[in-house]
Write a structure and sequence with these properties.
Distance between the termini of chain A: 19 Å
Helix content of chain B: 40-55%
Helix content of chain A: over 70%
CATH class of the largest domain in chain B: Alpha Beta
Number of domains of chain A: 2
Largest interface: A-B, 57 and 52 residues
Mean pLDDT of chain A: 89
Low-confidence stretches of chain A: 1-10
CATH architecture of the largest domain in chain B: 3-Layer(aba) Sandwich
Radius of gyration of chain B: 21 Å
Low-confidence stretches of chain B: 11-35
Strand content of chain B: 15-25%
CATH class of the largest domain in chain A: Mainly Alpha
Oligomer: heterodimer
Order of helices and strands of chain A: HHEEHHEHHHHHEHEHHHHHHH
Largest sheet of chain B: 6 strands, parallel
Distance between the termini of chain B: 59 Å
Order of helices and strands of chain B: HHEHEHEHEEHEHEEEHEHEHEHEEH
Strand order of the largest sheet of chain B: 2-1-3-4-5-13
Strand order of the largest sheet of chain A: 2-1-3
Shape of chain A: globular
Strand content of chain A: under 5%
Number of helices of chain B: 12
Largest sheet of chain A: 3 strands, mixed
Number of domains of chain B: 2
Chain lengths: 422, 354
Amino acid sequence: MTTSVLDAELAVPTGYWTRARKTGAVMTGLGLLATIVFGLLATGEAARFAYGETVDGKGIDIPGNVGAILFGLIAVAAGVALLVTGRHFGLLVGTALLAFIVSALCWQMSVSPVSHIMPLGSVAAITFTAAIPFIFGSLGGVLCERTGVVNVAIEGQLLTGAFFGSLFGTVTGSFWLGLVAAMVGGALLSAILAVFAIRYLVDQVVVGIVLNVFAGGLTAFFYEQVMRPDTDAYNFPERVPTWPVPGLSEIPVLGPALFNGTIFSYGSLIAVAVVTLTLFRTRWGLRTRAVGEHPAAADTVGIRVLGLRYLNVLIAGAVAGFGGAYFSLQSTTGFSKYMVSGAGFIALAAMIFGRWNPVGALLASLFFGFFGALTSFLIGISSPIPSQFLNMLPYVATIFAVTGLVGRVRAPAADGKPYVKG
Amino acid sequence: MKIVALVAAAGLALAAAACSKPTEEPNAGSTSAAAAKFAACMVTDTGGIDDHSFNASSWAGMQAAESANPAIKAGYTPSTTMADYDPNLTQSVTKGCQYVQAVGGLMGDATKKVATANPKVQFAIVDAGNQGLANVYPIQFETQQAAYLAGYLAAGYSKSGKVGTYGGMKIPPVTIFMDGFADGVAAYNKAKGKNVQLLGWDKAKQDGLFADDFVSQEKGKQKSDTLAAQGADVIFPVAGGAGLGTAANAGSKYVVIWVDADGFETTKYGSVMLTTVVKNSKDGVKDALAKSAATPGTLLTGGFLGTLENNGVSLAPYHDFDSKIDPALKAEIDKLKADIIAGTIKVESPAQPK
């Protein structure tokens, strides 16, 4: 059954208008829009892309109208190439979109009354730090769902991690122990999910939603009862230190983002690498995927389906819990009620957008982080576009990306289906 | 399935209980029994009681009135979402509160609805008008006056020539701070012939940078990181608890001007607080409650309008920064304050109380 679904999806559609060609047409249209509209609206004022973390320092200058038209044309070229050839989908779409964004930026920066400078290093750094909780959260989702258990409780796992991280980080006086506690906290919440989903066969989406509400209420309750009355004793953890990599952290643009990080930023990349390797290169990974696709078949060859599901759901909780500690140990010092504020749901979207693949989830998380950073930047320079529209940008981009670029995504076949030995 | 349903129901019930448990009940049971007691209930907005901001200072006002008059029993109900406003206000009435304090302009509609249904109960609301009702006592502030002083101070203190601000949400009680701040920066530029830039708010367009959140410190941090990258070295977050993300990450990059309640005293980040635009909700709420409790059964008339003159709004002491601010600048700010009180300078905002 699995094979036939795969075949159907991979089969080359007949006819000229493949998905790639249609996308190519859309990209060409976007490019033309950029060339004409942005080119006309932009002024000759130079738009400056500074390499560093602030607006000072070296950078590259492009006159706004020249840049808007030039990058608009690059987008057109990429779109036409895709339309004509129907090949190199990822590369060409990426080029077209990036060129479109740069064209828009040239226009925006040239007309800004406030600043003509975009500090690329800062945009990269904000993108990556904003993505950290999404990365851990979506990894938690991947681990869970690849094994056949739907995880909509990411929000709750992050929140529990943030709470435990702060509480134990403060009480023990060590952020390391706070991190361990955050993983335990996330795993505890996951354990509830596991028991209901695997043992009692409850609808997994319902359990997940209930767990989010449960985690929110419970942490808020203990926050009010324990933390708030004595902040110094229970809610003032040591902050995770920044570990710059000598030399590398000075690299323009990407240096500050990648090499001036904390345990969370390095950890998120390591976690993606480890999950990718183990999921696709080890016996555990093969078994996990087998259980997520076809548990009955896995069972007949002697894999302990339920045991593996329990294990993976717990690991998923621990990973998400670790990521949740980002909120209370790096983003700020201390827990506050409902501080995760929807990041878990964005992580869920990132997992689906990333096609249940760890690297895909990483890229999707960075995508969300980037549009957040871009929005802040544009509003910060007093963009002529009303802020309400700019705030929609990440969501519009998501809808566009999910419908237009990713195509049909396929969840693991047994995702959300409880396994009953029969 | 039965077991499952049971456990799920229990889980939900527990979660709900945890959500809505008012931590400091106004001894609701005993209030209805003891007629001598005057039950006063506050409903927080989504920022929560410990937002280090106007919920916290309104609650401080309730407590101050309580300790001044032993007949008053004060309590509060936290709201976690805007959908809680209506039920929380209604619940406050049904449990016998004689004085219901709503906090925040976003609660205006819910207050209007519940107050209309209960015309004999005294309501008071911070940051909103009386909604055309006799039983709603408005507690409002000419916040733009104090924010003007802060804007002037920020422009004078900035070394980079750039100052930044962002709001929690684009609503009048927030933008009024940003308007005053923008005017203060402009006044400094005019007085000194300088060009200090304000990032994050355009008063003429009435648009700017918003975290769209009063809780998420992560979102606050992102906004201030963006402003700092553009070179702002004084940042004015008008975002309640979300602003803590800005304060926590200030380091040596920028200093913070806090809002509502003196950030030097109410947050853990006193060392980065240049000053605070204080909105004295505490005294406004305390006066309203004290008056209402003194005349139970009759409705309050008029309203409270906090200005620089009656100390309803003010600029907090500079604390750690006292020695770092040029004395001449401090003197100019004192002069501006006197001018605003005297009426020779008028600071106006589309968001100010009508």
